[in-house]
Fold this sequence. Notes:
Blueprint: E1 14-15, E2 18-19, E3 23-40, E4 46-64, E5 78-81, E6 84-95, E7 100-109
Amino acid sequence: MTTPTQLGTTVLVGFMGHTYTAVIMDSAKLAVTGDQDEIRSEDNETCTVIVSNKGTQIDFSGVIKGSTVVTPPAKGSSVTVNSVIYRVLDSSVEYSRLAAKLTVSAIKEDSMTYT
Length: 115
């Protein structure tokens, strides 16, 4: 059997202003996060909403270029996307016959600084 070859050019894709090196992106999602608490009046009407713990969650998946064995980042570790450091919530690697697909869900709370 012949070794498969890629025809054309590998293109690194950016989503929502983010670019990813060494990963050919399959999908990406950026969401605003936060907790909301409602305070109700004696008539059971919402009179105040307290928003706290605001942040940004990013979910992305892509094919790893030139790699056969991939270790997904551990929960609680940090990943950097466009110089923003996120905390990993969940990650996994799915293998096919020819590639490894990495999926990562991470969060950056506005109040936190990760290293």
